[in-house]
Automatic annotation (TrEMBL):
Molecular-function GO terms, alphabetical: cysteine-type deubiquitinase activity
Cellular localisation: Cytoplasm, Cytoskeleton, Spindle
High-level lineage: Eukaryota, Metazoa, Chordata, Craniata, Vertebrata
The keyword Hydrolase is assigned to this record: yes
Biological process (GO), any one: protein deubiquitination
Domain Peptidase C19 ubiquitin carboxyl-terminal hydrolase: 24-204
Gene field: Cyld
Main location: cytoplasm
Name of the molecule in the record: CYLD hydrolase
InterPro entries: Papain-like_cys_pep_sf, Peptidase_C19_UCH, USP_CS
Amino acid sequence: EGSESFPPLRNEAAVRVLQGRMKGIQGHCNSCYMDAALFSLFSCTSVLDSMLFMPFPLCDRNVQGILRDEIVNPLRRTGFVRANSVMHLREQLTDKGQCSSFTNAEKDPEEFLNLIMQQILGIEPLLKLQSGSQKEQECYCYQIFMDKQEDLVVPDVQQLVERSFLSSDLKLVEIPSCFIIQMPRFGKEYKMFSKIIPSLELDITDLLLDSPRECCLCGDVATLECS
């Protein structure tokens, strides 16, 4: 692969390059968790392109090169990534991680993101969350946890994030540079929702800790918040 870099796909170009048969990242040997994560992180957005280029303090340049030259650039250039390119990355992750099963087992996307962002590239956590009066916690992505809700048949991402934060009594400590959200569990045995509508924009006003918001009664700056 050449070292030329390609920008993320936008609008008509995204449709032209990514639509149709033999497009996306080819699956093989339980790779779907990684394929879906990589496609989401890089196909149409540049928010995490620092992962591909920045010489982070702990950065493994070999893994970074595979990610950039064998996966992201081909995806953006031709809309297709062969399974053996992902397997090459998985083999490197198995060598670097404490886990020997990245090449064959199904994993949680969060486990993959934590390994590649924290241990291999050394990126600072992207999210700062606070639950109630506990001290803030840092993480790389947020997984939506919620009980089955009868009134939500086909929810959108905005509804799911708001309800999940509410049920866990969570707030964002600050506006995140990148907000990676993992949808509710979706496995062979159990599907919480058959469809989820992507929210093209996410309003995090009510999710932010100590952010000024207006009173729903008088319109002035609110002094109290009820869940």
